[in-house]
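Researcher: Good morning. I'm working through a list of sequences from a screen, and I'd like to move beyond sequence-only analysis. For each chain I'm collecting a predicted structure so we can compare shapes side by side. This is the next one on the list. No need for commentary yet; just the structure.
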Amino acid sequence: MTDRPAGTIRVLAIDHTAGVVPFRRKFQALAAHADLDLTVLAPERWVENYREVRAVEGREDGYRLLTGRVGWPGYENRAFFLTGLDRAFRRTRPDLVHLWEEPFSFITLQAMVCARVRSPRAPIVFSTSDDRS
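Model: Good morning. Structure tokens for this chain:
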């Protein structure tokens, strides 16, 4: 972790689809804000629309991309991180956790539990695609 300018907010975004390159545009847009220090956690292997997607850790257009192994890749609500989640919290020490997950998914449950242990003061926000009402 490097020193950050005063007023910078450390954000940890967790997104099971972040391995899909076109889906990362939202992170590029967020990273363009000088007051955000953005880290994104993605599965290192995911299945999206019957195709395997691999994510590689590193710098991506102004943000860090971290990866972890998941159980049941491709089953968005049942998938869960086997590795990487705790490490992402320890490395990032987020001021804010942004879940790009459904509120009822296992990844959401894992992230919320991990956040309460590793970053208990960090608010958790959701961006969800589920519009069932």
